[in-house]
Amino acid sequence: MAKRWRKQPSETGLARVCQSPRGYELREDGEAIAHVVPVHMRFIITGWYWYGFDQNTYSHPVETADECKKQVKKYMKSKGL
Are residues 36 and 50 in contact, defined by beta-carbon separation less than 8 angstroms? Predict the structure, then answer.
């Protein structure tokens, strides 16, 4: 089955009022295999990072979520996944 990006679900109730931007999940067969999430610094997004496949790029964030998605795609291609 194809791998597809899906936006993380919205918060519910009062938490939705001050919800920060949601991240993304790369899903295959209904299971999340990688995540792209924002880096928060005092309620301000300073970058984006991804984790999955025993990797975590928190210490090297990039400016946009799309850049992170490209990094995941590049990593998967290099590993033949």
Answer: yes
Which residues of the chain fall short of a pLDDT of 50?
none
Amino acid at the residue 49: Y
Structure tokens at 19: 């919800």
State both tokens at 35. 């995540």
Q: What are the backbone dihedrals phi and psi of residue 27, each rounded to the nearest 5 degrees, phi first?
A: -115, 145
Q: What is the C-alpha to C-alpha distance for residues 58 and 42, in angstroms, rounded to an integer?
A: 16
Complete edge-to-edge strand list for the sheet that includes strand 55-56: 4-7, 24-28, 31-41, 44-52, 55-56
Q: What is the model's pTM?
A: 0.83
Query: What pLDDT score was predicted for residue 1?
Result: 66
CA neighbor of 50 nearest in space, from 40, 62, 42:
62
Query: What residues does each domain of the chain span?
Result: 4-79
